[in-house]
Amino acid sequence: xxxxxxxxxxxxxxxxxxxxxxxxxxxxxxxxxxxxxxxxxxxxxxxxxxxxxxxxxxxxxxxxxxxxxxxxxxxxxxxxxxxxxxxxxxxxxxxxxxxxxxxxxxxxxxxxxxxxxxxxxxxxxxxxxxxxxxxxxxxxxxxxxxxxxxxxxxxxxxxxxxxxxxxxxxxxxxxxxxxxxxxxxxxxxxxxxxxxxxxxxxxxxxxxxxxxxxxxxxxxxxxxxxxxxxxxxxxxxxxxxxxxxxxxxxxxxxxxxxxxxxxxxxxxxxxxxxxxxxxxxxxxxxxxxxxxxxxx
Length: 296
Description:
Elements lengths: L1 H13 L6 H8 L3 H7 L3 H22 L9 H17 L2 H8 L5 H26 L7 H22 L6 H22 L6 H7 L10 H16 L5 H15 L9 H13 L1 H6 L1 H19 L1
Helix pairs in contact: 1-2, 1-4, 4-5, 5-9, 7-8, 8-9, 11-12, 11-15, 12-13
């Protein structure tokens, strides 16, 4: 981690291409042999730096969903603002722009996969915000949203003395996107089919999320399915309790016997099982996985 931080500092100050391996050795104070034990090249070091920063950002971005409704578009706005603030604080955009044309196959593939990963995340969040009924249009909408945002950033900074108002640009782009979703759904037009995108952007399973986040998603899906059902308030209260206990935000160890009791009450409820049987089983599986991981 120390050598990554030193390299990051130099890449920002001098630029990636102008920074030599010797510069990194001098800044970090480590021997060349030690460096090459971990990284075979400067490009490999850069890829590891990007991965480290992205993993931290993605965790913080996911944490904004804990205890929140995934369908709330304002949470999506906050997540994207956090991402852009991270990019700005770490000068990631300028670094990306500098290295994107370097003729290194591994670096090119990493950049391509990073772009697809971002598109996949936006598409998944749009499914949560706009609903399954608009699924077939949301790849197009995710692509258009990123286009509006990226070009908005470029021309906004160009015309505002290189100063970027992140909230304004993100909120503007999201406001336009909402209208676009309505328009494409009404028109029925699809440019990029979901089947085609599935070959290029394979979906990550829900279980690849950290378990508290996956549980939050499952609870949200269940509450949507139960909306308007008899006894909704009581069932929603039990679901909220399970999510809160397993969120990691209480500061105390989850009370397993209380969570299991709440899940038993839910599973025994005839309305709950008849309305949301599949989603209920999914939540039970996630809760079981959570406690298996706790026991290890």
